[in-house]
Amino acid sequence: MKIKLKLRHKKVNRSFFGDVMVFIPLALVAAFMALPLIYVISNAFKPLNEIFLFPPRFFVRNPTMDNFKDMFLLMSSSWVPFSRYFFNTIFITVVGTAGHVLVASMAGYTLAKHNFPGKNIVNRAVILALMFSTAVTAIPNYLIMSKLKWIDTYYALIVPALAAPVGVFLMRNFIIAMIPDAILESARIDGASEFRTYWGIVMPSVKPAWLTLILFTVQGLWATTGGAYIYSEQYKPFPVALNQILNGGIARAGVGGAVSLVMLIVPISVFIITQSNIIETLATSGIKE
User: Fold this and answer.
1) For the segment 133-181, what is each residue's pLDDT rounded down to a tens digit?
2) CATH C-level class of 67-284
3) How far, in Å, CA of 196 to CA of 198, rounded?
4) What gap in Å lies between CA 64 and CA 83, rounded to an integer?
5) Residue ranges per domain, the chain?
6) What is the tens place of the pLDDT at every residue in 182-196?
7) How far apart are the C-alpha atoms of 183 and 289, rounded to whole Å?
């Protein structure tokens, strides 16, 4: 009996020290990765004398809200209401994200679980499209938008986001890996329509995939400036207005810190809201035949 208790006690100690040895390096890596975010937050509350201090300080000593007050003052003095810029970004982000998830999931489901002529060609085209960067496709996209008369409209930013190949590639691979054909066959035998099978079985099972798409798409669309597609002030997104504030020179360095924090709030909020769902779904979803 004493031997058993001794062995059990030894096992608990080994497990505890093993957890500590794993936790310490992970905590150090997490702290190192959080440093840029901490610096942005600290910089947003620094007065001008601390921003230009040499050697620079990582943490703010005398926090102030003047940077945010100056930012809102500059916003209110603009001849185009900042609420218009904000609405443009919200509209582009929400519609583009929802549309991309819907289009990518439907295309991924079709490529993963249906056979049709030219399927392999489409799959190869999707993989090939992943090799091209945004700079390479900028001119063809502009020519297409010009032919469609979509320049200086919301379509010029939303439609290309719907057809991003990374979403189709990700959804297709998740559906292949996590949804057995037997489940789909059972649904069809029970009389479920194709859309009901897609919406009621496929989408809940690949929740990690479309949550990941939401994160990436929101991050990209929230920070977009419209580039060469948007010219009218009434269609320009929020980052353009914030960049105009930063053009005031070094006197607006403090406002620049506040602008950087404002631009980070939405992507970080979306990540915080969805990360627990992603981890939980990755741990519990998926059925193997």
Assistant:
1) 877 888 888 899 889 989 888 998 898 888 888 889 888 888 888 888 8
2) mainly alpha
3) 5
4) 25
5) 2-65, 67-284
6) 888 888 888 888 888
7) 10
